[in-house]
Amino acid sequence: MNPGQLIRVLGPIDVLTPTGPVSVGGVRARSLLGALVIGVGHAVPIDHLHEVIWGDDPPVSVDNTTQSYISHLRGILGTEAIVRFDHSYALDVGPGDIDALLFERQLAEAVEARDDPEACRRLSREALRLWRGRAFGDLADDEPFRLEGYRLDELRLAAVELNLEAELALGRHELVVGELMVAVEEHPYREHLWHLLIRALASSDRRVEALRECARVRRILAEAGVQPGEKLVDLEHAILVTS
């Protein structure tokens, strides 16, 4: 792969170069690169690539057309970036050459630094800065990308939670309340976000609001037929005892 380049899929698919972002072309070229990214480190069968690019309606000259897309991507990434194995292609790049892989590595480092809130906060923020929108951009809802997009988004939420945990550990309770309010509205069934919000309110001497949020999450979970977890119940009890 050409030096200084970064394949980006944590948002619209493109390639970041030392001189700025470069489009890889239309939806079919982006679909091809996205499929190779998902299969990075493995040989991806050409038949699978055909299905990703054209679904059930490939052109008559499908092999030649696919080869032209491969050549186009090689022209952007470097001639050695995509290699051919029999009836397959593989993306031959390092873990620091794809933003999704870089994000996962930085998230793992943030998890390892959990006992050091300042380092955890820095690492989780660095990881989150790689995101520019939904994973795979306008392809996010397409069948070949939906599952991997969901997995990456779950990891993004884990990074958000880790960053907010670090902020609370550093005593920045008031500063994160607003962000947590937005987060629980966007992800109302994610109990850990509610737990962090209620902790932040209680630690900011806003116990009445904290108990109000306890009641609200109980109602939301009950509507889904779910009981609050032990951590939420214990936190509510602790607030009641100290109120």
Write a brief caption for the model.
The protein has 243 residues and is mainly α. It has helices spanning 27-38, 46-54, 62-77, 99-112, 117-128, 143-169, 173-186, 191-203, 207-223, 230-242, and strands at residues 6-8, 14-17, 20-22, 44-45, 82-85, 88-91.
Question: How many strand elements?
Answer: 6
Based on secondary structure, the structural category is mainly alpha
Secondary-structure element order, N to C: EEEHEHHEEHHHHHHH
Please tell me how large the radius of gyration is.
22 Å
Strand % is 5-15%
Low-confidence stretches: none
Specify the biggest β-sheet: 3 strands, antiparallel
**Helix content range:** 55-70%
Describe the structure.
It is a single chain. The protein has 243 residues and is mainly α. The protein is 60% helix and 8% strand. The protein has helices at 27-38, 46-54, 62-77, 99-112, 117-128, 143-169, 173-186, 191-203, 207-223, 230-242; strands at 6-8, 14-17, 20-22, 44-45, 82-85, 88-91. Helix 6 (143-169) packs parallel to helix 8. The longest helix has 27 residues, at 143-169. The radius of gyration is 22 Å and the shape is elongated. The mean pLDDT is 93.
